[in-house]
Design brief:
- The chain contains three helices and four strands.
- It has about 80 residues and is α+β, with helices and mostly antiparallel strands.
- The protein has one domain.
- Strands 1-2 form a two-stranded parallel ribbon. Strands 3-4 form a two-stranded antiparallel ribbon.
- Helix 2 crosses helix 3.
- The longest helix has 16 residues.
């Protein structure tokens, strides 16, 4: 499923990802999330929140994502 994609994970699990990732995947170590089109991956819990707000922004607009972050009292950096 990850063949040929850019992938990431939490910085504490990068070595484990390197052991199991397909050879064709590109591991990106300093990304909070990566958008591969239909597959979006995040690098941890707060990065997963950032990724989720990014998806809300893609689907419903940046204003809706910003409003969602405000409702959550989350300091989202676009």
């Amino acid at each position: 499923m990850l063949d040929g994609l850019q992938i990431t994970t939490n910085r504490l699990a990068i070595n484990e990802l390197k052991e199991v990732a397909p050879e064709t995947a590109e591991i990106v170590e300093n990304a909070r999330y990566i958008d591969n089109g239909k597959i979006i991956l995040s690098a941890g819990v707060s990065a997963g929140i950032d990724m989720s707000l990014y998806v809300v922004s893609r689907l419903f607009g940046e204003g809706r994502a910003k409003n969602t972050a405000e409702l959550m009292e989350y300091d989202w950096k676009v």
